[in-house]
Every structure is written in C-alpha cells, then in structure tokens.
Design goal:
The protein has 9 helices and no strands. The protein is mainly α. Helix 1 runs antiparallel to helix 9. Its main location: mitochondrion.
Length: 302
C-alpha cells in the first residue's frame, strides 16, 4: 500500500512494476531475516510442554544449531522461499494494489478506508497463500530437526515427498496457509492504514522512510500476533510423516483446539518471539524497500 494510500484514486502502477518492486522488497527481507524463520519452525514443531531435549529459547535454538549442526544450518531450506519469494511478495503488494481500487469501485468510495484496507489485505493474503503453500511445505521439511539427514537438498526433498506420499501431499496445510496469510495481510495492511494516520506527517524523505518503517514494523507485529496460531498448526500439518500413523491435525480450527487442549493455549504461540523479531522489523524492511522502488519507478520510468 503506497504512502498516500488513503488519498489514492483508482490509478496504480502497471502490474509488472508492482511485481518487480514486490520481488525486490521480498528478497531483501528474507536475506536479512531468514535464520529467525528456521528458529521459529524448530520451536513450532516442539510438541508438549517441555523436555530436556527441547529448545528453551531463541538463543538456545541458535547456539545448539551452530554447535550441533553447523552455522550453515541456519540457512537450511532457503532455496524454496527464495524461489517463491519474488512471486510471493510481488503478489502480496500487486494484489493489494489491485484489490484496493476494486473494493473502492465496489463500495463507491473515492479513497481507501479502514474496512477497505482490511478487506484488501485479506484478499491479497488469500491470493498469496495459494502460491506459497507448496514451497512452504518443502521449506518446513528441510528445516525440521528430525529431517536433518533425510533430504540432500530441495529437489531431493521434492522427489522423496512425491515418491513416499504422492502428489496430494504437496497440498497439505493449504487451508491453514490461507488462514495464516489472510490474517497476517489483513492485520498488516489494515493497521498500516491506521498507523500512518496517527503518525506525524513526514516533512523530509528521511522522515517518510522512518514513518514507513515504523508503520511496517508495527503492522508486521500486529499481523504476526494474529496469525501465529494458524502458523503453528500449518507447520505441524506440513511436517506430518505418514509413517507415524494417521495425521493428528488436518485443518486450522480443529488443530488449534487440539493443541490448546493438550499443550495449553500458550502452545499456539510457540515460535512467536523469532517470528515477531523477523516479521516486525521485516515488515518495516518490506514497506520501506517497496515504497522506495515504486517511487523510483514513478519518477524515472513512467
């Protein structure tokens, strides 16, 4: 959503420009923040209320991975998200910039309002989820501690999943992924609209960057708080091994109820700290880079 989204009319950048700007923003964010995603996944996959072999904190995750598996393991599984990051982030922002005018026309509004901002974000999130569900599954399998020696790399992981579980396995967790992205995008883009309205109007370029980073970081934190339970369920569904018997979780709401009942409500926020440390500042990075690139495009390429 552009810096002046609340005053925007139906005019937007061409889709190719939106796609390119979103791709640049997404890859920038993931290169900076990926080790936190590995830590988040490890914590989310821990079943139960504790144990001597379980990670105790984000610091414990990092120190044990480096000590037991090597520092390179902090970037294990980065290829699938890198491959999908460009279309994923591009679709996030391009869809948001496309759905906004659509909802404006639908509700006969000459500006983006708070409800339109939320509906736009949710719609963009659903669109994004369909694209990322399968690469997310491959990434989770590569990041999981118990799979450390099972897969040689991304393509080996894809081949083994197909050979052992069939084509349908690549759709595991799709419904929970839709929940995850709809909640995050709705919270992110919806809160950005409100936060920008509350912050002092920037008078300089540096001030505008600061406002965008603050709005994006707060929006990322809100989105993360809303969607972490669906991320926990999604992560467990996608790491399911058929050799362990029937799946324990298949969809978000029943899965969330089961986890809360068996492990306590706090279990739905396992991995929250590394997740919010990534997606809070990461949301700021996303917005700042996207706004910078789209501003450059408007000023120099149109």
């Amino acid at each position: 959503m552009s810096a002046n989204a609340e005053k925007r009319t139906y005019y937007t950048l061409p889709f190719l420009f939106q796609f390119t700007a979103g791709a640049i923003a997404g890859v920038s964010e993931i290169l900076c923040m990926y080790p936190l995603d590995v830590a988040k996944t490890r914590l989310m996959l821990q079943v139960g209320k504790g144990g001597s072999d379980q990670y105790k904190s984000i610091v414990d995750v990092f120190s044990r991975i480096i000590k037991e598996e090597g520092a390179s393991r902090l970037y294990r599984g980065i290829l699938p998200p890198i491959m999908v990051e460009a279309p994923k982030r591009a679709i996030k922002f391009a869809s948001n910039d496309t759905y906004g005018p659509m909802f404006q026309r639908l509700f006969n509004s000459d500006k983006i309002t708070q409800p339109i901002a939320i509906m736009t974000g949710v719609s963009a999130g659903i669109t994004e989820a369909v694209i990322v569900a399968t690469p997310e599954l491959v990434k989770i399998r590569l990041q999981a501690k118990e799979n450390a020696g099972k897969y040689l790399g991304t393509m080996d992981c894809v081949r083994k999943i197909y050979a052992e579980e069939g084509l349908r396995a690549f759709a595991n967790g799709l419904e929970a992924t839709v929940w995850r992205h709809a909640l995050w995008n709705g919270g992110y883009f919806g809160s950005i609209f409100a936060i920008r309205g509350m912050l002092p109007k920037a008078q300089t370029k540096k001030g505008e960057l600061a406002v965008n980073f603050a709005a994006g970081a707060i929006g990322g934190t809100i989105g993360t708080t809303l969607n972490t339970p669906s991320d926990v369920v999604k992560t467990r569904i996608q790491n399911y091994n058929p050799a362990n018997g029937p799946p324990k979780y298949t969809t978000f709401l029943p899965g969330a109820r089961a986890i809360a009942r068996e492990e306590g409500f706090r279990a739905l926020y396992k991995g929250y700290v590394p997740k919010v440390l990534r997606l809070g500042p990461g949301g700021g990075i996303l917005l700042v880079v996207y706004e910078y690139v789209t501003t450059y495009m408007r000023n120099h390429m149109m």
